[in-house]
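Reading a protein record of the kind used here takes only a little practice. The integers have meaning only within a learned vocabulary of local backbone shapes. With that in mind, consider the following protein and its fold in token form:
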Amino acid sequence: MPTNAIHRNYRKTFKTPRRAYEKERLDAELKLVGEYGLRCKREIWRVQYALAKLRKAARTLLTLEADDPKRIFEGAALLRRMNRYGLLADDELELDKVLQLSTQKLLERRLQTQVYKQALAKSIHHARVLIRQRHIRVGNQLVNVPSFNVRTSSEKHIDFCASSPYGQGPPGRVARKKAASRAAGGAGGDDEE
């Protein structure tokens, strides 16, 4: 009898806008796509959906009494997570502050943005290419997902991979080809003399 080893609960990761052709929203989205080097609008909608879920959790906790055990336990966990990902500072650890989070704040924490901000890439688009081509690591772990959310503790450990030509790895294809042509050109010149 065949068994299926992998069972996954698939769920939507984004929510499309209610009005498809709203000019102000389209302009704002296009500006964000350009500023953060996103592939498509769906990447914005995914971040907005994640933000909506965070805000909804904070709203439901705020409806409870201040001394409610659920609010104390889940509220502290939510705020700790926001702090760990650098979305809230140490002096802003309140549920009201979660409601004030913006899409830009979440987009700032993406690996793609962090690689560009740390000047490992020449542009935000170059940062995305470097990540997808497996040149970037966070700590000792190679990460090839541009939307990876970077924790504040991992921020200083973003660097080039050991196997990358930009790091300590062997030279890339083009560099090897140039070196071979230089060696062949140098050897060819010696023969002629």
